[in-house]
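Fold this: Rhamnulokinase
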Amino acid sequence: MTLIYNLAADFGASSGRLILSKFDGDKIELEEIHRFSNDPVRIGSRFYWDFPRLFHELKNGLKKAALKGIDISGIGIDTWGVDYGLIDKNGDLLSNPIHYRDNRTDNIIDDIEKIMSFEEIYKVTGIQYLQLNTLYQLYADLKFRPDILEKADALLFMPDLFNFYLTGQKYNEYTIASTSQMLEVFSKTWALEMLEKLSLPTKILQKIIMPGNIIGKLTKDIQEETGLPDVPVMSVGSHDTASAVAATPLEGENCAYISSGTWSLLGVESKEPIVNEDSLKDNFTNEGGLEGRIRFLKNINGLWMIQQLKKHWQEHGIDVGYGEISKAAAAVKNDGFIIDPNDKSFLAPLNMATAVQQYCINNGQGEPREIGEIARAVYNGLAREYKARISNLEEITGRKINVINMVGGGIQDEFLCQHTANITGKTVLAGPIEATALGNILAQLIALGEINDLSQGREIVKNSITQKKYTPQ
């Protein structure tokens, strides 16, 4: 078989990469060809993504791919969820996209619930209650930036925005749109009646395109700047979790997944949305996946908390790496500290260490002081939350979960994997680390007709990786 080469551009909340894949018909090999940090910027009272720099880095990665001198069959882009850019009728970006951790949505939920209750919204969208959802961000634009909203001709989620400036084509890809809380969960179309009731503009919404399609080819300007020819840009599971779940080698309905990174996304795959009183009560979400599948899951604040602890300690002259933090947490004698990772105090604190300490003090646990004690409070909180949500999943779906497939960069933290097995009492299968990039590539290969479907793609993933097994101790 002729080797097939594709590019996956994976933008995470703290870094981005361009990854070159090589598919030989049986296995996929990945090569990271460009990596860069993703550094949000606070200007005045607002917290922005630096989109121009991110697009610059994307083009740098495409230039490196061109220098390889090989035929690239396609490009796919995935990013974090919910955030978006607004462009005018000339195709100009009206403002840098605002970060989902910005505080402009702090009281927006209260404003919306004066018009529609969350229960009403959930019945339409099936999306969990989170103040960072696009629905609340767009309502904040209506309230605080009406002038920008009036000039907007199109709302493009982050991967859509990258795709637009690569191809000139405007679409909203289904999996990323499904994170917005603005889609009807069963029809997979815009919830126009709900949006109009909230006085939100619907003319800026674009046609929904499903994963596994060609969006367009690189514009002549991009071709000239990067040295790549007219390579097709594909619609993939452009929400990074959709791509990660696509590449998770689930063995059946008795498996749950945790996509572990900045966030922990814990859930199961379902053929149909699950919207009922129990899913509402437990605040589970129904997001889109490849082949129209539903990711029934819970968003849990994840290893971003450890990232912020590391950043804090380094800023205060303590040069400590992730491995050292993990080992310190595992070895600590006073291991009873525990936080609730979903508490609002951990969404965007200026000092994560102080936030953890204050939470423990406020909840009668005393004060964790050492690096290991503070980190252990986070690990304990994550593992206990996983256990609670697995129990919810079993109750809501009627499934008995025996295995947790953990994927993503977080599985490099072996203490987290083992601690998860110990606390949940479930077997943990860790791998692949590069689940998001692999899922991105699978969607491209399906679009190209190189593989038949997601089931075949998951078998290819299993052939391409080594998983590590953790049993409860």
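The two ends are 45 Å apart (CA to CA). The chain has a mean pLDDT of 97.
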